[in-house]
Amino acid sequence: GRNISFDNIKAILIFLVVFGHFVELHIAQDAFLRPIWIFAYAFHMPMSALVSGIFSKANLDEKQSVQLIRNIVAPLLGFELIYEATEYLIRGSFSVYAGLIAPYWMLWYLMSLLCWRLLLPLFARLQFPLILSLGLALVTSYSEHLGYLLSGARTLFFFPFFILGWKLGANAFVSKGRDWRLICMASAIVIAGSIMCFLLPAQFDYRWLYGSFSLHRLEMADLSGSLYQLLQYGVSTLLGLSILYLLSLRDWGLARVGQRSMYVFLWHGMALIALHQL
Questions:
Q1: CA-CA distances (angstroms) from residue 212 to 94, 137, 143, 160, 228?
Q2: pTM of the model
Q3: What whole-number distance in Å separates Cα of residue 269 and Cα of residue 228?
Q4: In sequence order, which residues have a C-beta less than 8 Å from that of residue 28 and are 6 or more positions away?
Q5: How far apart are the first and last CA of the chain?
Q6: Side-chain half-sphere exposure of 174, counting CA atoms within 13 A
Q7: C-alpha angle 232/126/163, rounded to 5°?
Q8: Which pLDDT tens digit goes with each residue over 62-115?
C-alpha cells in the first residue's frame, strides 16, 4: 500500500541532504559547487517538511502518540546521546549544540518534526492555518531569542511548508492524466531556478536558506527583509513543487532507499565525523 512515487522522492531528498552536508564546508571557495548547493538548499528542506506534512494526521490519538514516540522522540533522544558521546570521545568535550541547548546538527529536523506534529492538531482547527503559519514565521523571524535554541527558529521557518503538505494530502502528485502543459511549466521553473542559482553574485548570503538566522543577524530587520523572506517562500514553493511533480512522473528505482531514508538521515553524520578525522 506504499506510494512508490513518494518513496522515490524521499530517496532523492535524503541524497540531497547528505550531499549538502558533505560539500557545505567547501562552498565558500568552490565556484562550481556553490550554485549547485544553493539550488539544492533552495528546495530540499522545504520539500522535506512538505512531504512530512503530507503524511501527518491532525488527530493525536493513542495510536498517533505511540508512533510519535517511536518514530520521532526515541530516535531523537537516542541519536542525541550517540552523537554527543562520540563528540566527547573524540574531542574531550560535548558539541557546541549542547551549549546552545539545541539538537545535535542534523537532528534539528526531528525536533522540528516533533513540534510540527504537536502543533498540527491546533492549527487544523483554525480557518486559515497556512496563512497563520506563514504570518507566525514572518513575525518571529525578527526575534533574537529563537535561533538554535531547541531548533525554534527552523521549526517556525519551515512550518508553513509542513502545513502546505498537510493541506495538499497524499494525492498531491497523483493525477489520472499527465498534462503536458504542466510538465513543460514545471520543467521551465526548474531550468530557470538552476540558471538563477548559477547567476547569483558571489556575495549572496546563503544563510537565508538555513532558516536559523533572524532578520537582525541577516542585517535586514525591516519590511524589505520580510518581503525578501516572502519571495524566498514563493521561489522555494514553486521550485520544490515543480521538482516533486517531475520526480513523480516515473519510477526512479529508488523506493527501497526512500523507505529507509530515516536510517540514512540518522547515520550519515557518523560518516561525516569519520571523514573530518582523516
A1: 21, 11, 11, 15, 15
A2: 0.95
A3: 32
A4: 34
A5: 44
A6: 9
A7: 35
A8: 999 999 999 999 999 999 999 999 999 998 999 999 998 999 999 999 999 999
